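Weekly modeling sync, notes
Attendees: S.R. (lead), two postdocs, one rotation student

Agenda item 3: backlog of single-chain predictions. S.R. asked that every request posted to the team notebook include the full sequence so nobody has to chase files. The rotation student volunteered to paste the first one in as an example of the format we agreed on. Action items at the bottom.

Example entry:
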Amino acid sequence: MDQTIATLATTVMGVLLPYVTRGAKEFVTIAGDAAFEKAKALMETLKKRWSSDQEAAQTVERFEQKPERYEPVMKDILEEKLTADPALAQDVKKQIDAMGPELAIIQRLKDVDTVTGLDVREMSRGKASVTQDIERGRNITGAKIDKLG
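Predicted structure, as returned to the notebook:
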């Protein structure tokens, strides 16, 4: 299998797993409305393109119901379909690229000595957010950035 397809499939699953695992409200809270809409559109693209393939369509349904159990099967079918359908691969890649890199760090801690939410050495585009809910702590850094944009 083409390494590019494997990487694309891994990236897609990295978007879809949190989308189906968390409820819409929690996903929006963590990733934002735009990311939610883009993840939803990605899932709808796959559903539409796979609607005539019974195995793939059923896998999507099962993945939505039990994401952790069906993640490997979903990824396997995704890799197979992306390899067989270059137009789908191009469409999915375009959707993934439009999302841009997004990073959401959420830390809920009770008692910590040293914690850093985000340490970026360079970030030319994308979105990063840090949420820290710490009951008691020392040496807390929300973000340490060397170059942004």
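Discussion: group reviewed the output briefly. DSSP finds six helices and six strands in the chain.
Action items: rotation student to repeat for the remaining queue; S.R. to check formatting next week.
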